[in-house]
Amino acid sequence: SEPARPKRIKALDPDVVNKIAAGEIIVAPMHALKELIENAVDAGSTSLEVLVKDGGLKLLQITDNGHGIDREDLPILCERFTTSKLKEFEDLTSIGTYGFRGEALASISHIAHLTVTTKTAGSSCAWRAHYGDGKLVPAKPGQNAAPKATAGRGGTQITVEDLFYNIPTRRRAFRSSSEEYAKILDVVGRYAVHCAGVAFSCRKHGDSGVSISTPSSATTVDRIRQIHGSAVANELVEFEIAEKKLGFQASGLATNANYHVKKTVILLFINHRAVESTAVKRAIEQTYSTFLPKGGHPFIYLDLEIEPQRVDVNVHPTKREVNFLNEEEIIEMVCSEIRSKLAQVDESRTFLTQT
Ligand code: ADP
Ligand code: MG
């Protein structure tokens, strides 16, 4: 018999393409929140409040006191690749801010109901706009989609409702809202430790208390105490190391050899962005293995700054992973610095017990 004829190849509908892309960038509520936190910090905010309902699936709201968004920019705010942070491809290599691709808000608008309320210092009122599929949409069907004047403080409030409402399979994949809330707290907690001078709060809708509350004046150790407890905060050693030839500087806080936790905790920031790195984790665990009893693990906050032209942030859609030059040498230098700090504390302890 004759072979079957091929089906004709057709372009996907742009809305389908956008929805697929959005689902790759925003895998879970925590990814949307991470982007929103980075935007708020980029906007120079010193206060950041997060409100969460149903693990972020029903509601994710973040209120900042940053520079706000110009009313004239609201119509294109959620279009893909619109950004105030990048103009040329070359800028990708020298970008100092967190976001850079203009994809976060666009993505969120394709898979959730998004409302933005914002006020700049120069505006006499705040403006509120609703978005769907990258565009302004009316608050209610039949109404005008143009941003509406409203009362509001300086800064921006982003409200994300019904995340993944149009991706039912993804929505169903979330079994427990408390699990998603725990991941949200982890993200907020990381930035709350890292962002000196910024107040953070995170609250579950309906709860009277807050889960995280860090004043803007808190020191880094205070922040760790608030979020990870005094037991950890009381046992930290400070470290710092830089090498011009490798284009990096690193600083941080690590638990000493007299203390350990059940599971390794690494708060890793590369160029002020929370990232994961199995290479860093492995090296740190190796470093501590000679100091800690079996089954004991360290807590580490590591703030790593690498010359932007040596970092490739585009290896993963969620920007969770980054690649950088001389990775092995840099990690080894950081670990050997930590090792020498641990040895110092160890020696002083031996000395103390001997006298
Ligand atoms: P990117 O951060 O990559 O530029 P986003 O989609 O995250 O892309 O944001 C698009 C633009 O919207 C930003 O470049 C910024 O100008 C503006 N913006 C987003 N969030 C805020 C905020 N909280 N405060 C002020 N401006 C914001
Ligand atoms: Mg952004």
TrEMBL record:
Describe the location of the DNA mismatch repair protein S5 domain by residue ranges: 224-343
Question: What is the covered span of the full protein?
Answer: 25 to 379 of 744
List localization entries.
Nucleus
* Protein name as catalogued: MutL protein
UniProt source species: Penicillium cosmopolitanum
Q: Where on the tree of life does the source sit, at the highest rank?
A: Eukaryota
Family (UniProt): Belongs to the DNA mismatch repair MutL/HexB family.
